Structures are given as C-alpha cells and as structure tokens.
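Render this sequence as a predicted structure.
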Amino acid sequence: MENTDIIRDHIQTSFIDLFSTSQLASIPSLGPVPFAPRILEEESLSLETPCSPCEVKLSLWSMKPFKAPSPDGLHPGGVDNVIIAQELLHSMHRKKGRVGQLILKVDLEKAYDRLEWCFIHEVLLFFLFPKSLVDLILDCVSSFSISILFNGGKMEVFKPSRGIRQGNPLSPYLFILYLEYLSLKIFGACHEKRWKPIKASRSGPAFSHLFFADDLLLCYVASHECCNTIIEVLEEFCSISGQKINLSKSKAYFSLNVDPILRGSFVGSL
C-alpha cells in the first residue's frame, strides 16, 4: 500500500478490531474450582469500607521500595521461576526411562489488549470480591478512549470494548487474578489425574506450570491424554477470556527419551 489515506484507514481498523470484544454475549458464571482461594466475609466488608486519610498515609509509608530494587529493575523474587525452569530443562536433558516429559512454552498474543471486561467481572466475582467494588473496578477499566498517532497527527478517537491499559496501577493485579484462574483450572486437571506434572528429581516437588507475565510454561508427562487435557484447558480459557495463543512464538521442549515420531504426533495435536 502506498496511498496514505488507505494506510491510515488500515491502521485505524486494525486497532479498532484489536480492542473490540469477541464476546457476542456475556459469558456464563465461572464454575467452582478445587482449592480456589476466596476472600473471607470479614475481608469483603473491609474492602467496602471507605479508606480514611490515616489509612492511606500508613499504607503509602509502609510500602517497600520494590519498584526498582536493583540496577536492572528486576525484583529478586522473580528469579525463582527462572531457576526452576532451568532446572526442569536440565533434568529433561538427562531423562531416561520409558516415561517422557514435555514443557510447552505458550506465548499469549497482546495479552493485556485482548482481556475481555466481562471475564474480568466474572473472575472478580469468582474470588468473592464485593459487588460494589467489582463495579467500581470495571468503571475504572472501561472509562477510557483511544486515539492513534499517525505521522505526528491524531487519528479519530474510538472507545474500546475490551483490554486493560499499560501503566494503569490496577492492570497488573487484574492480570494476576486472571492468570490465577487459569492456574486453578490446571490444578483441578492435576487433581483429576488428567494432567500429570513433572519433577526435576525423583524426590523433588512436581511442577505443572510456571507463569512469566504473558509467557506460560506448561509442564507435563508426554502422553496423548495430557496433550488433550492441555488443549481442552487452553481452548476453554481462551474462549472466555479473549486470549489468543501466538503459535509462531510458542515452542515445545521434549526430554531425550521421547521418540521422534511421538514428538511429531504431540506437536501436531497441539
């Protein structure tokens, strides 16, 4: 395309499509999940109570300097997942025996921008946040408009119908809660023995998944049953949350004892 007006319209349409909801109707209420943590009744009441100036001041002054704790801005606690992932991959390279292992790296495409508001609403209710607070949060999330800059000039303003904003203090917490729901679904599948997690050592803990922002590491025994379970969990999650898996950035890592023919079969099914 060389015509400036056509390029401009194409860019505008692309962003409108990205921020337009894919839910034609409201999603059903999220069902019960084993081991789900919920807000207690006392905590719910405290969340509905207006904050006093003293409480705001006390909270601000008690905050730890975690925004930039080191020169690279990386929080030390986030290194744990990296070390665990390295140990799991290292153990897979030494894996022997008949039972193979598979780690699937899943990349979520435009994870913040695709998050459905109705899903945020249902997730907050699922964790028993008070209805008044849920409505207030949704008002904060949905009360914004977008204008694209093209060659230094503003394009036509439009109202999105999904997505959370980068830089909004609420966004990281909402993103964590929405991934927490996926985590609980995975734990539920493990509890039902349909998803078999893997270990880095014989006596070590089992790992079914690790989350790095919008990158997911799904760990399981290399079997068709587990692959089918993963497809089921991810398809259900993506259909209600609005997420889309970026296949070009997703990868599968197999232990050395997985037959090459089986590897192709697993990748094909995924």
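Summary. Strands lie at 101-107, 149-150, 153-154, 198-199, 206-207, 209-212, 215-221, 251-254. The CA atoms of residues 98 and 151 lie 59 Å apart.
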